[in-house]
Every structure is written in C-alpha cells, then in structure tokens.
Write a structure and sequence with these properties.
This protein has about 160 residues and is of the alpha+beta class. The chain contains six helices and six strands, in the order H-H-E-H-H-E-E-E-H-E-E-H. It has a four-stranded mixed β-sheet with strand order 2-1-5-6, sandwiched between helices. A hairpin with a 5-residue loop joins strand 3 and strand 4. The longest helix has 26 residues. The N and C termini lie far apart (about 65 Å). About 15% of the residues have low confidence.
Length: about 160
C-alpha cells in the first residue's frame, strides 16, 4: 500500500476516534464550552441560566464537584429544564467564543471572569451577566449540593423574571 494513502487513512481513522470520543464526553460529562453564543441561544429558547464550571486539569476538587454533584444533576431530568451546564478549563489555550461573540480562549475567559481558584461555579444569563454569587472551592462538601441548588434556583428565578 502506498505510504501516503496509508497515512491518509490513519489520519481519517484518528479524526473519527477523536470526534467519537468528544461526542461521548459530551453525553457522559459536562462539555467544555466552544461557543457561548450557541449556549446563549439555547438558554434564551429554554429560558434557563448557563452554569459554568471553571476547572483545571488534574484538580482533585474539580473532579469531586463533577462526580458528586454536577454529573448526578445532569443525569436528573429535573435539571434539564433548570440549567445548561458547561465547563471552562482555566489553563487551556483552547479557543472559545464569548457570550458577546468575541474570539477568546478558555484561559483568557477565566482571567476575564476573575477566576483565581478552582473549582468555581458561576451562573450567567444569555447575555453573559452573572446572576448569583460564585461558588468558589469545595470547603464544605456536606453543604455543597444545597449551596449549588440555591444558586441554580436563584439564577433561574432571575432569568424567568427578566432579572
């Protein structure tokens, strides 16, 4: 077989696995945001806030927040009508589009939002305005779920009341 053809086939196969893996991650976890303008459109249509988990690769507390709180919420149909959940990797140069449509990166978006510690959760409306106090760190795991629910309910009420 021709080397160029073999390399081309290998690239196609690798691309397919990458796309399939990203799709599987989106279904199983909280997707990394790519374009907040798309999330904003969905938020307007569904009349819900956008929850953003600002996390860092290899952050044990971020993993704990995901595993113990956000993933169970995401699997619960009740939250489908309450919130859109996305992640921002605060150390990543991956591109993203902000709520205003501006090209940025995960790291720059985190800096612009004053993120100093991970995990941090913020709730935004479709225009990118913060709706509640951020939930920073994981200092009280026993109460974290209650704090998170309180913020989601507060943000949802503000969105549905038109702020």
């Amino acid at each position: 077989m021709n080397i160029k053809l073999a390399n081309g086939l290998l690239m196609i196969i690798l691309a397919w696995f990458t796309i399939a893996g990203a799709h599987a991650q989106d279904k199983a976890g909280i997707p990394l945001v790519r374009d907040f303008t798309l999330e904003a459109t969905d938020a307007r249509t569904r009349n819900v806030p956008v929850l953003v988990l600002f996390s860092r690769h290899n952050c044990a507390f971020c993993t704990q927040v995901l595993q113990e709180f956000l993933l169970p919420m995401r699997r619960n149909a009740e939250y489908e009508s309450k919130v859109i959940m996305r992640q921002v990797d605060v150390g990543s140069p991956a591109p993203l589009r902000t709520f205003s449509g501006k090209a940025s990166t995960h790291a720059r978006f985190a800096r612009e939002n004053g993120i100093k510690l991970t995990p941090t959760i913020k709730l935004f409306d479709a225009e990118g305005h913060e709706l509640t106090e951020p939930l920073i760190g994981l200092t009280t795991p026993d109460y974290y779920g209650g704090f998170l629910d309180q913020r989601i309910d507060e943000a949802l009420a503000k969105v549905r009341a038109g702020k």
